[in-house]
Amino acid sequence: MNTNMKRRLFLKASLATGAVGLVAGTGLLTPRTVLAAWNTAAFNAESVGDALKAGMGSDAVTDSAEITLDIPDNPENGAVVPVAVATTLTGVQSIALLVEKNVKPLCGIFYPGKRMKPGLSIRVKVGESADIIAVVKAGDKLYSARKAVKVTIGGCG
Amino acid sequence: MASNSIKMKAKAENGETTVKALIKHPMETGRRKDKETGEAVPIHYIKEITCSFQGEPVLTAEWGPTISKNPFLSFTFTGGAAGETVELSWTDNKGNSETASATIK
User: Fold this and answer.
1) Residue B88 near residue B3, CB atoms below 8 Å
2) Which chain A residues are within 8 Å of B79, Cβ to Cβ?
3) pLDDT along chain A (157 residues), means of 10
4) What is the count of structural domains for chain B?
5) Which of A22, A26, A34, A98 is most buried by its number of CB atoms within 10 A?
6) Is residue B52 situated within a structural domain?
């Protein structure tokens, strides 16, 4: 886990202990909901730039050959597009996956722990033929790679 | 731990462990309409997912509804040996959550 995330969790945890103490009797809030760090602004953003600003702290990205994206060219069914992303960059803090033309482009943000090799496979929905973008945050800088996919059946409707 | 929604496998090889997980979840975007009633299917998706090994998170992730239905996730981490366990848990936007563990093979 990167230091940012740790700090966030620590802050949230310390705030939560206070808050949970207060509301424990009411049963309205569970520690889980208080602790949730889910980035609402980033996931609701309707452009790649806004999603990156909210989710990764900036939209200044550099193309990088050190990120590989393994996606079929013509996945056909946009509901299930397999994406494998891997990078040889070091000090990876987070990896975001976005689909450019989706109504809400951000699919997910992954925070690798110390042990994890920076790379993963997942399946995403692609609304219409568009670029799939992987953005890697390493050393507080953003790097990206993209690949265009053609879908014949949209996956979001 | 028994889990109905998570199928997970972990395999150790050359000092690395590869985790493959399949989670049964509708991952509704809230934009799809029910074919019979014409009403929008309410949004329902996994928001947070954590995989840990020896009490330490290996991967935490925030997901949006554009992750495919019945999500599949695979990744590799260093360390791990046969007989040890990895744990995976998710929480969705309705507050449901589930945890499962798998023994590394």
Assistant:
1) no
2) 115
3) 58 53 41 57 93 92 94 89 95 94 94 93 94 94 94 73
4) 1
5) A98
6) yes
Which domain covers residue B44, as residue numbers? 6-103
What residues of chain A have any CB closer than 8 angstroms to a CB in chain B?
A: 1, 5, 30, 32-33, 36-39, 43, 79-82, 99, 102-104, 106-117, 119-125, 155-157
ipTM surpassing 0.90: yes
pLDDT greater than 60 at residue B30:
yes
CATH code, domain with B43: 2.60.40.10
Q: Where are the beta strands (DSSP E) in A10-150?
A: 61-63, 67-70, 76-77, 81-87, 92-99, 106-112, 116-124, 130-138, 141-149
- Mutation for B interface: A103, A123, A137, most B CBs within 10 A: A123
The one-letter amino acid at A18:
G
Could you tell me if residue B88 is inside a domain? Answer: yes
* Distance from the first to the final alpha carbon of chain B: 17
pTM of structure: 0.82
**Interchain CB contact of B66 with A (< 8 Å):** yes
